[in-house]
Specification:
about 220 residues; about 30% strand; globular
Length: about 220
């Protein structure tokens, strides 16, 4: 998936770039991290190095991985941000993805089952201030990925479920009574996410939710 993403996005950039920009021919990087823990939090690193995984209750969203899936997280925002050049003062000089939406992460089940493909936007702000921008980020990314035939074919044919999550303060969050309970007991008592209804997203076979508790 990551190699397909790299090749197709670079192809798209070069087809749709501004006339003042040359073809992008620099080496393209994509940072990934595979996590198979049954319960873990993730945090927005904001282009810093390190693991996106952190202890439960310390991050911006909690994953409850009941099926013990091997989830490959792509640092999507960092991936899109690399298509730039800078001047000597560290200011952006040329930007091949100017105006693009860039949610924080893409995650997918890298095992044989290919259960989930996930687009995840995290925010440290309050959800009441993030509805418009956060949903726009998710929508535009779905539209972009599904507009590329090879990526869309893989999304529709390989993955059983395609889901977008918007996580921010004020979203549904995980508040189990005791971490000493059995894993499935905690999982079964988690609150349900709040669905986001968008016909353009649904038409492309994606579901969309506001939540800080991701139940897989």
């Amino acid at each position: 998936m990551k190699d397909l993403l790299k090749s197709e996005i670079v192809k798209y950039i070069n087809i749709h770039r501004s006339e003042i920009l040359e073809e992008w021919n620099k080496k393209t990087e994509i940072q990934t991290e595979t996590i198979s823990d049954r319960i873990f939090d993730i945090v927005d690193l904001r282009s810093k190095q390190g693991s996106i995984k952190c202890s439960q209750g310390t991050g911006e969203a909690t994953y409850f991985n009941a099926s013990n899936l091997s989830l490959c997280f792509i640092r999507y925002e960092d991936f899109i941000n690399q298509f730039r050049t800078y001047n000597d003062r560290g200011q952006i000089e040329k930007d091949w993805t100017k105006g693009w939406s860039r949610p924080d992460y893409i995650a997918y089940d890298s095992g044989a089952e290919k259960q989930y493909f996930i687009i995840h936007e995290l925010s440290s702000g309050d959800i009441s201030n993030k509805h418009t921008d956060g949903r726009k980020q998710l929508l535009n990314t779905v539209l972009l990925l599904c507009s590329q035939n090879e990526i869309n074919d893989k999304l529709q044919n390989d993955f059983k479920e395609r889901v977008c999550f918007l996580s921010a303060k004020g979203c549904v969050k995980a508040t189990p009574n005791s971490n000493a309970d059995s894993f499935m007991e905690i999982y079964n008592h988690l609150p349900d996410p709040i669905p986001i209804h968008n016909k353009a997203v649904e038409k492309r076979n994606f579901k969309e939710f506001e939540t800080n508790a991701i139940k897989l």
